[in-house]
Each structure stands twice: as structure tokens, then as C-alpha cells.
Design goal:
With 303 residues, this protein is α/β, with parallel strands linked by helices. The protein has 15 helices and 5 strands. The chain has a domain of 184 residues: 3-Layer(aba) Sandwich (Rossmann fold), CATH 3.40.50. The longest helix is centred in the first third of the chain and has 34 residues.
């Protein structure tokens, strides 16, 4: 290859790289505008201006336990649901702190606490909001540095995730009524038992990143003057009744809390399988039933 040919190849490569960079950044700018205008809960968070009295945190069990439209109808308070499928307690902390940065301080925080055993896999989708959240970016850099590097090079890769598709779906509408409306198969529900490995699972670990994040959330709420209620929502009876070490792990967890009264265990409160979509999650009917119990227990009232 002659020197002139080599130079032309280099110039072509540089031109292609520059074109890719310009297209990547321009496309990302347009897509980010769409994401920012969405009614998806995380987009609403970073839009700012939320004035909810109550904020809900947690994973998919929180999503299917607290049905915002019904709760707001039953109590004289506004509610904002920040829970999402697969959300760990550590991610809850980051998201909640971002909420406080962008929005008004709530009076009450409800955290569905069984996400103590969740991983941080949700970061793979939350990369969509890393540009608005240093906390999400830092967590991603710690847990998945390769993903962080790829996103810094190819901005469009941030949009290769489920949350981007959901943000498009919720443009012009809210996602606060999102809940499972399905029903578990009656025969499956009546015979379901967890596997041997799950029967002794520690749902309430009092060590690790999620536990440390929970302790910090407790301190944050205390510092801003917001009440914090920790809730464990119902499991399908066939699952809950066969968690052989549940009481031991729960009691240890409660003993480690600075205030044991903040914890409300509803894992056995719903016994009718018709209120479940699967062994881990209630459906909309189940949520309505649980909300009545929680209202009677004054979970949504400040103390």
C-alpha cells in the first residue's frame, strides 16, 4: 500500500467515525427528548415538579401491591409509584435521592421490603436515565464498567432497553395505573410448592449492599422528616406456607431495625388464590383487598 493510499484510507476512516459520532449524538438528542416527555414514572421523576404526599418504592411486588388509582380514591393523599420490576433496595436509594433532588419532599414513603434479595440488573435498563442521574451512572460504573464505557462511546446504546420502549408507550399518558390484571391458574395455585432451594431462602438479609442501602434510606427519611413504612406484600399461600425458615429470617431482620414498628408483614394476609397473578405477585383484585387491610392498619397515615 502506497503512502497516498494509506492516507486516503485513514481519511475515510476518520470521516466515517466523525459521521457516526455526529449521527449518534444527534439521534440520541432526539430520542432523549421523547423519553423526557414520557409519562413513564422515571421520566416524570426527572421532569421534576412532582408533589406527591406518598412515594412508593420497591420491585415488581410493590408494583402489584400498591394500585395508585384505588389508593388515591380511598385516602385523601396524592401518591407517586416509583417501584419497578427488578428494583433492588440499592437502586431504590439512588432513585429516591434523585426524586428528592427533582421534586417536593413527600410526607410518607412506602418501601416493599422483599427487594432486599434483588440484584442490580435493572441498571441495564436504567442506563436510559444515566444522563440525568449521577447516582445511576456511578452504580453502573461500579457494577458494569463495560456497559458504562459502551454507553459513553455509543450514545444510542442507552436506548437499547425495555425502559425505552415503555417510555414511548407512555408518551401522553401516565403509567401510575400499571398493575397485573391476570389470574393464576386454579389448579396450579392449589398444588404449587416452592423448590427445595427456595424453601430456606433468606428473604431478609441483614448484610450486603441492599441492607446498607436500607439503613441509609431510613436515615434519609428521618433527616427529611418523612415517615417510612416497610411492607412485605402477600405471597400465594402455597409459597408462603412452605418457606420453612421465613419466621426466623423475618424476626432477625426486625430485631436489626432501629424501629421494629415500621415493618408490616402481610405475606399471609391474602389467602384466596383468585387475588394472585402468580406465586409472587397479586393482581389488581388482590391489591384492592390488601389496600383495605393496610388502610385499616393506618399504614398510609403519619404517626
Amino acid at each position: 500500500m502506497t503512502a497516498s493510499t494509506f492516507l486516503r484510507v485513514c481519511l475515510h476512516v476518520i470521516a466515517i467515525a466523525c459521521a457516526f459520532f455526529a449521527l449518534d449524538r444527534a439521534s440520541g438528542f432526539v430520542l432523549q427528548k421523547l423519553v423526557k416527555e414520557s409519562g413513564l414514572r422515571f421520566s416524570k421523576l426527572y421532569q421534576g415538579g412532582q408533589t406527591a404526599d406518598i412515594v412508593v418504592l420497591g420491585n415488581s411486588r410493590a408494583v402489584n401491591a400498591i394500585f395508585v388509582p384505588e389508593l388515591e380514591k380511598q385516602i385523601d393523599h396524592s401518591v407517586f409509584h416509583l417501584g419497578y420490576n427488578g428494583m433492588s433496595t440499592e437502586i431504590c436509594e439512588a432513585i429516591f435521592l434523585d426524586y428528592l433532588d427533582y421534586n417536593e419532599t413527600p410526607d410518607l414513603v412506602i418501601l416493599e421490603i422483599t427487594n432486599l434479595i434483588a440484584s442490580n440488573d435493572l441498571l441495564k435498563s436504567l442506563k436510559l436515565y444515566a444522563g440525568a442521574s449521577d447516582r445511576i451512572r456511578i452504580l453502573t460504573e461500579r457494577d458494569d464498567p463495560k456497559l458504562n464505557r459502551v454507553c459513553s462511546i455509543a450514545n444510542l446504546y442507552r436506548y437499547n432497553c425495555e425502559l425505552f420502549l415503555r417510555s414511548l408507550y407512555y408518551i401522553g399518558k401516565t403509567d401510575q395505573a400499571w398493575i397485573n390484571s391476570g389470574n393464576i391458574d386454579p389448579e396450579f395455585a392449589s398444588t404449587y410448592r416452592p423448590g427445595a432451594r427456595d424453601q430456606d431462602k433468606n428473604i431478609y438479609p441483614v448484610s450486603g449492599n441492599n441492607w446498607e442501602a436500607l439503613l441509609r434510606i431510613i436515615e434519609i427519611c428521618d433527616g427529611i422528616g418523612a415517615d417510612l413504612k416497610l411492607v412485605a406484600s402477600p405471597y400465594l399461600p402455597g409459597l408462603r406456607d412452605n418457606l420453612i425458615s421465613y419466621d426466623m429470617w423475618r424476626d432477625r431482620f426486625i430485631s436489626e431495625l432501629p424501629n421494629p414498628d415500621m415493618f408490616h408483614d402481610y405475606t399471609q394476609k391474602i389467602r384466596d388464590f383468585r387475588y394472585f397473578a402468580d406465586p409472587l405477585h397479586m393482581n389488581q383484585r388482590g391489591s384492592r383487598e390488601l389496600l383495605q387491610i393496610m388502610i385499616e392498619d393506618q399504614v398510609f397515615s403519619r404517626h
